[in-house]
Amino acid sequence: MIQLSDAIFSSRNDPNQLNVDENVMEHLQLIHPNSISEYDDGNGPICWILCIPTTLDLMNQFINQKISEKELYELTPLNTKYEAIYLCSALLLEEFRGKGIAQELCIEAIEGIKKAHSIKALFLWAFSKEGEKLAEKISGLIDLPLYKR
Question: Is 59 strand, coil or helix?
């Protein structure tokens, strides 16, 4: 999954992107347990998603390119009420695409976050047409507006 992430996002070479490591994963779990989800088919993980709940103010700063993805993560406060969810990434092994796995996992994560927070919007920074389509479909299915950087 890390190789797939590097191939798609090249986050290790871009200081503005969030480079997910063990420390980042632990911190994301503190923001909300549903920030990171994976689907394991019994032979290991085949899908991994990252959804970062945050504030509308930080969402708007990010959408308007006033802060980077890394700054969005760093500035998102702990123990507050979140109103937006950043659809950060969805990684799915190629042979499992088109089966609704990433969609279901994302919706599950969003619904889990919505149980504790009054979410009003979703937002993304699309790196692929497939990612953008997935976000648009999820937005329609859960009836939340989607904002794009």
Answer: helix
pLDDT in tens, 106-138: 999 999 999 999 999 999 999 889 999 999 999
C-alpha–C-alpha distance, residues 48 and 38, integer Å = 4
Helices and strands in the chain: count of H runs, count of E runs: 6, 5
Which strands make up the sheet holding 45-54, listed edge to edge? 36-40, 45-54, 84-92, 121-124, 146-148
Of 149, 5, 17, the residue nearest 71 (C-alpha): 17
Q: Are 92 and 47 in contact (CB under 8 A)?
A: yes
The CA R_g of the chain, rounded to the nearest whole Å, is 14
- Give the three-state DSSP class for 147: strand
Give yes or no for residue 7 having a pLDDT over 80.
Answer: no
Specify the pTM. 0.89
Q: What are phi and psi of 12, to 5 degrees?
A: -70, -20
Dist. CA 24–CA 27, nearest whole Å: 5
Contact 57, 123 (CB under 8 A): no
